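Worked Example 4.2. Consider the chain below.
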Amino acid sequence: MGTRAVIAMMEHETNTFSPVPTPLSRFGSPEVATGRAVYDQFKSTGTGLGAFLDIATEAGMDIVTPVAGNAAPSGPVHTDAYEFMCNAICEAVQLGCDVCMLDLHGAMVTETTSDGEGTLLARIRSIAPDLPIAISLDLHANLTDDIIDNCDVLVGYKTYPHIDMYEAGEHAGRIMVRMLNGEVRPVMRWGNRPILAQTLRMGHDDAPMGPLIEQARALEQDGLLAASVFGGFPLADIWTAGLSVVTVADADAQRAEQAAEQLLDAAWDSRADFVFDSAPLEDTVAQAKSLTDGPIILLDHADNSASGGTQDTMAVLEEVIAQGLEDVAMFGVCDPQAVDQMIDAGVGAEITVTLGGKVDMPTIDRVGEPLILTGRVRAVTDGDFEVTVPMGRGTIKSMGKTAVFETGGVQIVVISRHTEPHDLGCFRSVGIEPTRKRYLILKSRIHYRAGFRAIAAHELPCNGVGVTSSDNSLFEFKKVRRPIYPLELDTPARPNYPHAPGAPEGGG
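Applying the procedure from the previous section yields the following structure tokens:
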């Protein structure tokens, strides 16, 4: 029998301020993939899981695929959902294996643990203490001691939008194969700095994240096995939220330590650049109206479903309508009730809908504020399309039942499942050609760049409403370690933190 490899995916970025629930059904459409379906759905796709499957196949391993769950960001993961995925992976390991490769996120919070990934890895280690484990993580991971202490190889994405998910998995997988062959002895070191960085300041094409990633690449070119910079996920109110670094060296702990400190010092020196300031919404929309060439992208970043937003706040759309912008397409409003009304009415029907505003947001003291609009149903689809950009290439994106509603000069894609627009297929699959629109309202932060930056004449962030706002003053942080920059501007680089109270978290 050949090398037996357990390969799985368990991904969720948890916004602890989000009112959107996270049951098991959110981790797959129509259901969570298990067994052979994991291999069939994900092999060679633009994911870390796809890379692990390709590498294991290439190496002639016997592959076991217990589960692949990937949920759009939302509130804490329901206990039964977490246990279903953890148990599937742990039971596969219990049956015996020689290596484990996991496509994880790094910012999963559940109803029972603030460290979903670390808890899983610790369980695996308790079953198989000497099992070689490689993992790929999202750039927005909030790292902990339990994550680091319970794996042998860790590689994070180096891009945002995450167009290198496959490459990160491939990188981790190839180091693991070399480890299994006795060619390298990976040694990992990690650390963090007290920076609660804004997600809108983490694009790999922008400072300060871009230069940090280039430094990490230079360290790899100089012989380090891997160097990963994690911006962290600031909307997780947990002890370890924030920026961190992991380095992997070949049997050289001192080199790994020095490289990690070099990257962390550079990040700390750039901390002021991780703060994002928004202009008033009405000013941004007025600026968009004054521009002549398009498409002009209006980013409704405070209600981004890929950071846990409800995807149904209407402030940006309301302002666009109020200022009379024409030739607008919007993606997308998640409102299953409105979709059902449009399906019942039929394509071509003129109807009045109460759109959006169905979900209250108590953590920011907001209630849902829908818009009452009259217009026509222009299209109805099943909401499925194949992703063509590198970020998730080859996977099927399921928006749920979908309709296009046209009111005045605005076409609105209304969906039933939270979906961030990062691929032009979100418009083209419903009959809208985005390159021909003057304005595109996108409920997105940075991921839109994967597909839309190439067609955009202008990109304007809009200060709308939602639980993914970049305004820290809206959120009551109770659990994150303090002091932390920029919540406390005089935060020192190395505060003397106690261990996280009552939690298996580290990295002070």
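DSSP finds 13 helices and 20 strands in the chain. Residues 253-269 form the longest helix (17 residues). Compare this with Example 4.1 before moving on.
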